[in-house]
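User: Quick sanity check before I run a bigger batch. Here is a single chain. Can you write out its predicted 3D structure?
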Amino acid sequence: MISHLTIENFALIEKLSIDFSQGFTIITGETGAGKSILLGALGLVLGKRADLTSLKNKEEKCIVEAHFNLKPYGLQSFFERNDFDYDDDTIIRREILPSGKSRAFVNDSPVNVQDLQELGAFLIDIHSQHQTLSLSEEEFQFNIIDAIGANDELLSDYRQKLKTYKHSKSELSSLQENLLQTLKEHDYNVFLLDELVSANLKAGEQQELEEIYEQLNNVEFIREHLDRSIALANEEQIGILGNLREMRHSLQKLSGFSEHFGQLSERLDSAAIELDDIASEMERAVRNLNQDPEQLESVNQKLQAIYNLQKKHGVQTVEELLEIQSELQSKTLSAEEIESRIEQLRSEISDLETQLDAVAEQIHIKREKAIPVLDKKLADILAQLGMPDARFQIQVVLSSDYHTNGKDDLQFLFAANKGSQFGSLKKVASGGEMSRIMLAVKSVLAEYSNLPTIIFDEIDTGVSGEIAHKMAEIMAGMSKKMQVFAITHLPQIAAKGDRHFKVYKSSKGDNTTSEIKLLDKERRIVEIAQMLSGSVVSDSAINHAKALLN
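Assistant: Done. Predicted structure follows.
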């Protein structure tokens, strides 16, 4: 249950702090006084979307903080599953910064809004007029039946299996498409692969082959220039090496006269050694030169094969061709692998269908048992609310389709009066009847759920008099098992609360704020009297208010 609420800088609220207690709490106030602002602030701590326009002062942050007593509700497993810090007295805080950024905290640990929404679903049910419309939605109707049938665990098991089933079906469909495409391309891919394999390609070989080809194709030219270079180095009279030896001999004689001459001599020694090595290399190169027409033709053919393959596949290197070869190998092997995986998936899907059918059957049986219980309870409550002839026609029929909550198709029909034809709620029930049906549903659900708090926002729309009195009694009865709030304009409901808060506006200069106060006995009499007679409170209204409270 919610025990405390603090709101700062939200809409018309500057700052307010409220303590709440167990039981039946009434909230009243004139239209526009700020009751919806309270719900909006509470919605923030339950994970609703934050809006920068909610800030009263755009220069300061908005803070909404709610304290919850969670001890009786067994939420420790949820906190552990989501890695939240658990405390019996849990604090949820939401902040909206002037920049528009929103932050959320559970017991001072930051959380994301989605996690906050999941937690909020376990804490408070805010019933608004909009939610009354959900009565006619199939998902909500199933939720009512499943709450009575205690189908939570079965539905969780079913949804987990359904998720796996849908994933497997999706994979199967994708693989079947891939197989068709693969089979169409298989023969061509095999042809391309054979071409590449027979080329016996190796990484880096193109550059090596091109160098060999250039050498073989220019043997005479290379020999001529190597011989000339060797001659220039070794010619007896004008050879470079001979002249270098003469230079070295002369400089060695001068090295004793100056350190500089000694350095020049050393440098010349190094040059002579290097040139001598170069000359030796050229001589070895000449010895290794061979005119080999057969090798030249072989290299040329290999290069032409590489060039043709590069042109065919639109690439520039042998490495790219090898990548294509690897891809083609995967494609030609994948057909068999895909077929094997398809057979495996078909078997898995068949097993999952068997499991889903079994769980769906259990869900269906529990729903069938729950429907008469729901029918009787709703009829009994609606009879108290002035609808003694209200009847429901609820049926679940197993279908062949896998829905998100089982395999049942649901028929949820209603007739308000004797002799009336059954029809869908949204077509045959009036606004006042929908409000009473929703209250009856919430009353029944209170018996089967462990929800700490419910807030009724003007559920009394379209009713008055004795019916309002009966609605108040039902809400008061619900408050024995859970914390109940009612935002109302009806004095009959307001008088049934254990505590009564009034929301009102106050003005100071140009500033208007919404505030809330707990009414004592005397002020509560006046408030209910005003609800009965308007702003001018008569003695009869006061007496009537006292009678309602008593």
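The CA atoms of residues 464 and 490 lie 7 Å apart.

User: Great, the batch can go ahead then.
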